[in-house]
Amino acid sequence: MGHVQDRRSFLASSLASPWLASAFMKTTSSEEIQQRPTIDIHVHLFGVGDAGTGCRMSETITDGRAFRFLTEMLQLRVPGKTIDERYEEVLMEQLKNSGLTRAAILGQDAVYDRNGKVDWDRTSFYVPNDYIFTVVARHSEIMID
Asked: Which long-range contacts (CB under 8 A, 24 or more apart) does 97-103 make?
């Protein structure tokens, strides 16, 4: 017959587990932590295509409250800059101030029909690989593709 553990014993053992694990683990100094590379492997680039980037975004997104909020919060609408250009600048500022060593920049593929043809009506947003490669080349000190 198996051992039945009451709630109090279970909670006590659960609380002790992290303490026991930390007692046997190597202590890491803050200096060692700062020397370790930190990489965010999932950072999306986006665009609306207003700078010839090839990006696309559906009207459902660009007409929505979330998009308007995002463009206002990130100050993406500034004189003399397209949204795509400004987003690249803001993303770089945020990455440089984040403490990250690198960030893997991702695009977004389109939706395709059964015949392999792009279905723009069902594609929410699209960021082509060529645009990713161009942006990463401009910021290779922190971005990887």
From this structure: 98/40, 99/38, 100/38, 100/39, 100/40, 100/142, 101/37, 101/38, 101/39, 101/142, 102/37, 102/38, 102/39, 102/40, 102/142, 102/143, 102/144, 103/39, 103/40, 103/43, 103/142, 103/143, 103/144
* R_g of the chain computed on alpha carbons: 23
Q: Rounded to whole angstroms, how far apart are CA atoms 133 and 52?
A: 14
What are the φ and ψ backbone dihedral angles of 102, each rounded to 5 degrees? Answer: -150, 160
pLDDT along the chain (145 residues), means of 10: 52 46 54 76 94 96 96 96 97 94 95 97 96 97 91
What one-letter code names the amino acid at 25?
A: M
Give yes or no for a contact between 143 and 40, defined as CB atoms under 8 angstroms apart: no
- β-pairing, 39-44 vs 56-57, is unpaired
Q: Where along the chain do its domains lie?
A: 33-144
Task: Output the pLDDT for position 26.
Answer: 57
0.85 exceeded by the pTM? no
| Predicted pLDDT at 41 | 92
Structure tokens at 36: 């370790």
Q: Tokens at residue 68, please?
A: 């308007």
